[in-house]
Automatic annotation (TrEMBL):
The gene is aroB. CDD domains: DHQS. Pathway: Metabolic intermediate biosynthesis; chorismate biosynthesis; chorismate from D-erythrose 4-phosphate and phosphoenolpyruvate: step 2/7. Its cofactor is NAD(+); Co(2+); Zn(2+). It comes from Roseospira marina. Residues 187-334 form the 3-dehydroquinate synthase C-terminal domain. Belongs to the sugar phosphate cyclases superfamily. Dehydroquinate synthase family. This is 3-dehydroquinate synthase. One of its GO terms (cellular component) is cytoplasm. InterPro entries: Dehydroquinate_synthase (IPR050071), DHQ_synth_AroB (IPR016037), DHQ_synth_fam (IPR030963), DHQS/DOIS_N (IPR030960), DHQS_C (IPR056179). Coiled coil: none annotated. The keyword Iron-sulfur does not apply. Its EC number is 4.2.3.4. One of its GO terms (molecular function) is metal ion binding.
Amino acid sequence: MTAGTTRVDVALGARGYPILIGPGLRARVGTLIREALPKARRAFVVTDTRVAALYQNDLTTGLERADVAWTLHAVPAGEASKSFAHLEALLEAMLGFGIERGTPVIALGGGVVGDLAGFAAAVALRGVPLVQIPTTLLSQVDSSVGGKTAINSRHGKNLIGAFHQPQLVLADTETLNTLPRRELLAGYAETAKYGLIGDAPFWDWLEAHGAALLDGDPALRAEAIAISCRAKAAVVAADEREAGQRALLNLGHTFGHALEAETGYGPDLLHGEGVSIGMVMAFDLSHRLGLCAGPDVERVRRHFEAVGLPVRPDPSRAWNIDRLLAHMAKDKKVEDGRVTFVVADGIGHAHVKRDVPMETVRNTLAAVVG
Ligand SMILES: NC(=O)c1ccc[n+]([C@@H]2O[C@H](COP(=O)([O-])OP(=O)(O)OC[C@H]3O[C@@H](n4cnc5c(N)ncnc54)[C@H](O)[C@@H]3O)[C@@H](O)[C@H]2O)c1
Ligand SMILES: O=C(O)C(=O)C[C@@H](O)[C@H](O)[C@H](O)COP(=O)(O)O
Ligand SMILES: [Zn+2]
């Protein structure tokens, strides 16, 4: 392996794969894809218009050098592309290109491209290979790993999807240099999630180094991405289809997804921003349930505020608690009509709780949007 590249393996037996993390990987992309998929002579690249302008040439030049013919399909940047309409257009383009069972789909971009292209790869011809080339912090620490793919429905976030693992993940850390700070912060929320779930020393480390990481320190970024990928790979290897502990990766998401649904999946609230607010709410809920000490709730809120993440929903908007609760009732973790929450006994000690009184959830919501 080239110096400066870290490898993390997702141990899923025959469906296992490596995650390579480091600078300059996009220059080696053709060779790396040919190594992972030796039979691939053609590839279908999916990206968004912003990422295409920045990184399309690097990728396609690499593919050509490795003798892989390609075509490229770009969707508009932003969450709205995770829709039926964009999925349909993408699938028709893939079929029009003449993809075969062995033709890889390459997702070049953030979590939106990864989730959409991943779902298309899961259903086209009942499944074609997938390569993830994540270009946002969020996608490098989270969405490119683990095989969750999805689009949104008018009924809620990620409600239509499939588990479809990639065969290779290439996280070129240099691509983060062009990422706007707001997007970096959104990814930072999902990074911090691993500390809050089960790694208190990582949370301490982020409190110490988070600001420098966000300001651009490449070594700190690479370290945080590797720690996050190791944490996610371990959870996914133990519980690929979320029968149990994988639900911990949903910390803050029941609240966050409800906020995203209320804002119509537009640019007002990014997924990572919803997760930041949602994790503060999950800690507040845990405190109300007598599980988590008040100082830990404050510590989470203070660190997110200090780096510039939102910790409460936009106060200039009229939020309706009943509507937020109705969104939560559509969450994929609902069992027998009861919403499942990820709560915490403290920083680094999250667990799943199925008997949370909705009145307490209402109190958590009322404290910030009432
Ligand atoms: N599948 C999973 O396990 C999983 C995990 C977490 C989040 N998600 C999903 O991921 C999505 C959010 O992903 P995201 O935060 O990456 O958002 P995104 O894909 O919308 O990317 C954010 C923005 O940054 C731009 N961009 C991407 N890379 C860039 C770069 N290197 N330089 C400059 N601009 C760049 C994009 O064009 C876009 O405008 C949500 O839909 C969320 O539900 C999925
Ligand atoms: O990989 C997982 O498992 C996660 O929960 C990661 C989350 O960050 C991600 O946002 C996921 O898509 C949310 O879960 P979902 O099942 O509601 O889609
Ligand atoms: Zn998420």
